[in-house]
Design brief:
There is one protein chain. The protein has about 425 residues and is mostly helical. It folds into 3 domains: about 5-100, no CATH class; about 110-215, DNA polymerase, domain 1 (Orthogonal Bundle), CATH 1.10.150; about 225-410, Intergrase catalytic core (hpI Integrase, Chain A, Orthogonal Bundle). About 50% of the residues lie in helices and about 10% in strands. It has 16 helices and 8 strands. The strands form 3 sheets. A 3-stranded antiparallel beta sheet has the order 1-2-3, covered by helices on one side. A hairpin with a 2-residue loop joins strand 6 (about 275) and strand 7 (about 275-280). Residues about 385-400 have low confidence and may be disordered.
Length: about 425
């Protein structure tokens, strides 16, 4: 069996700056080969007995560099093990081809770009935006055009976390970035661009991996009390004003089972208003889930007002018929959502509601009001819909429409 050791290259003299190249020495029987590591060190900064870089080399990066060296040794053992299992004779040429990343293999940044393009092609603009922001965050930290996947180590991720904390990011924001980076890493493993045995994230196989669950904090309360909700219902607004639009969208979301604003924006008279029901498929759901929402009296009143202003096309005046491109539709909805949320925030302050109002608060309030009436969590989850497959499997049982129709009436506080 071959052996692997990191040493200062004995074949080369000291460079002008007093450093010598660090190489991986591969010993197989009586032959030796040397593979460069791209690291150069002064002899006094290398501990040959432990095979580690000393702190004096660089107090900030020496731990990460040592982790990278340890990962390279681990990769060597994995490659040799795979060769043995597949009955492939050990040769330096074959070993080098497996150890060294091919020039055409995408790095992390390039793979981010590929993934973002694919998401946009699939019209998944929201998720594409998440990957785009995560990539830019990683680029600010690394200060490099690209980073090989094998350099994403637990120490690298710990340093990234510290960097984001110094930037002022909240724990939930950092958790969001790390979760996206982990998803990208696993996607790269599936496509053969990253090594599963070098997975830097904690799991049942790599107990020493990086954990980020501690970063996620419980968000502040987002559901309104019945009393605060009644303040919004009773609020008088001027016809066709921004305040009226924001109020109608908020209440419609609440009465329509916490409907997301992107789905509210896409509702059409000729397609989604079908007799006594609103029928639509939720845009954000990965696994297609259709909803059939009964038009209870408060929803009918909102629809009647909307029909006065827009009897054809879209129910709400967020999108226009002349905007056909889905990417432009997404941008339009995002812009209108920010405007609606600004108006809602001011409205909440004027009404002395303690929770900052947003369209998302309507969704939380919908669930909270039903829960206060004793509605089971399973029915609430069925009515709201879920994006995660495991949640869908556990909770999305098919209830009778009559059960859901009766539950909707509990939302009417009048």
């Amino acid at each position: 069996m071959p052996t692997f050791t990191h040493i200062l290259d004995p074949r080369s003299p000291l460079k002008k700056d007093g450093t010598r190249a660090l190489v991986l020495r591969v010993t197989d029987r009586n032959s030796r080969s040397y593979i460069p590591t791209s690291i150069s060190l002064k002899p006094e900064h290398w501990d040959s007995s432990s095979g580690k870089i000393k702190r004096a080399h660089d107090p900030i990066t020496y731990k990460e560099l040592n982790a990278n060296l340890a990962n390279q040794l681990a990769r060597c053992e994995v490659i040799v093990s795979d060769m043995s299992m597949n009955k492939i004779p050990f040769t330096i040429a074959y070993f080098r081809s497996k150890l060294l990343v091919p020039k055409d293999m995408p790095g992390v940044m390039e793979y981010f770009d590929q993934t973002i393009r694919q998401l946009r092609e699939r019209k998944n603009f929201g998720n594409a935006k998440v990957y785009y922001h995560t990539k830019n965050t990683l680029k600010r930290f690394s200060k490099q055009n690209d980073v090989p996947f094998q350099e994403i180590t637990p120490i690298y991720l710990q340093n990234l976390e510290s960097f984001l904390i110094k930037e002022g990011c909240s724990g939930n924001t950092i958790h969001h970035y790390m979760r996206t980076l982990r998803a990208l890493y696993y996607r790269a493993v599936e496509n053969g661009f990253a090594n599963a045995d070098l997975n830097p994230f904690y799991n049942k196989y790599t107990r020493k991996g990086y954990r980020f669950s501690h970063l996620q904090k419980a968000t502040s309360k987002r559901a309104l009390s019945k009393e605060d909700l009644k303040k919004i219902i009773s609020l008088k607004t001027s016809p066709m004003s921004k305040e009226e639009d924001a109020k109608l969208i908020f209440l419609f979301s609440y009465y329509a089972w916490g409907m997301n604003i992107i789905d509210i924006a896409k509702l059409r008279w000729d397609k989604n208003i079908q007799g006594d029901y609103i029928v639509y498929a939720r845009t954000k759901t990965r696994y297609t889930k259709s909803f059939r929402i009964p038009i209870i009296q408060p929803i009918q009143e909102i629809l009647d007002l909307c029909r006065e202003y827009s009897p054809k096309g879209y129910v709400f005046q967020i999108l226009k018929d002349d905007i056909k491109d889905e990417a432009k539709q997404y941008v339009r909805i995002r812009t209108e959502t920010r405007l609606v949320n600004r108006v809602l925030k001011q409205m909440g302050e004027d009404l002395r509601i303690p929770i900052p109002l947003t369209t998302y608060v309507a969704r939380h309030t919908f669930a909270s009001i039903l829960k206060s009436h004793g509605t089971s969590a399973s029915i609430i989850k069925e009515m709201m819909g879920h994006t995660k497959e495991e949640t869908t499997v556990i909770y999305l049982k098919e209830f009778e429409n009559e059960t859901l129709d009766k539950t909707s009436e509990l939302l009417n506080l009048k």
